[in-house]
Each structure stands twice: as C-alpha cells, then as structure tokens.
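I am still getting used to backbone structure tokens and would like to learn alongside you. Label the sequence line and the structure token line clearly, so we can match residues to local backbone shapes. Go ahead whenever you are ready, and we will take it from there:
>
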Amino acid sequence: MKKVMFLALAIVLFAGNVLAQTPQSGESSLNRNRDRGPVNREQRMKMRMERLNQQLNLNDEQKKKVEALFTDEETQMNKLREQQSDNREQNRSAFEKMRTEREAKMKDILTPDQFTKYTEMNKNMGPRPGGLGNRQQDQVKEKAAEVKDDASKEKAAITEKAKAKKAKKEAKLKKAAEEVK
C-alpha cells in the first residue's frame, strides 16, 4: 500500500514538475511577447505568417490563401468565444471542429511535403496557456506508463516473495508436523 501511495505521489510530483518548467523553443506568442506588451491581431497574424513562411517556404498564392484562412478562422473563433456556453464539452467540440476544418483546408493549400512539415510543427508546438503542450502530454503519458509498468513489476515481485514465504512457512509446518508424529 505504501508503495502504491509512493508511486501516486511520484506521478503527481512529475506532472507538477512538467507544468512548472518554462517552455523554450515552442513558447506561445503570449509568453514570447510578454516584454513587448499586448499583441494585437495584426501582429499575431504577422508573426504566425512569418513562422509558417520561414518553415514551409510558401509561395505568394499560398501566403494569400493561408492568411485568408487564418483571418476567417479568427473571426469564427471570436464569434464562438462570444457565444460560449457553460457546456465545456460543447465548446471544446466546436473548437475541435474548427481545427479539423483548418487542417483540411491547409492540406488543400500546401504541397504534401509542406503539409507534413506543417503537421509536425503543430505536433511539436509548446504548451498553451492553461494547459500542457503535446510534447509535455506525451512525456506525462510515457512517465505514467513507466510508473505503471514499474508498479506491476513490483507487485509481481511482492507476489512472488509472498508465495515463497508461504511455501517456506508451509514447509516449516510440514516439518514440525512430521517431528510431532
């Protein structure tokens, strides 16, 4: 029981450590620009487009289409934020639907190689405000799996020790019973 409690405590501490770490290469634009004051829509769009162009080498037509897509998406997001209900799952599914639609449109705009790079960029994006990034989620899942595996190995070892102890005890009892006869 103590070992299970220890493992649970280790998971909680590891998750807290991951949350407390300062993001570096994948920082969100909010963290990166904290010293420069608030970022307006145009600045955010410019930074996003620069990052994409730098990573994907977009041509002029792609730049226009991607910028139009992001502008339209931002408008839709603002509407959704205004209409947000108290139902978290409903809000989450609406934002997830928008993300899925954006991915499909980006697949049409970008070349297959660019789209692969784009999805990899998004996969490795750092933590968002209020949550863990994909890398951190993966790290937590890996650590949890390791702890679970360690716990099951430890449980198996404890079970084996208990069986051995029981067998030893039974042997002693059998020997004592034979001596009594």
Observations:
- Confidence is low (pLDDT under 50) at residues 25-33.
- The helical segments are 2-20, 29-32, 41-56, 60-82, 88-109, 112-123, 134-180.
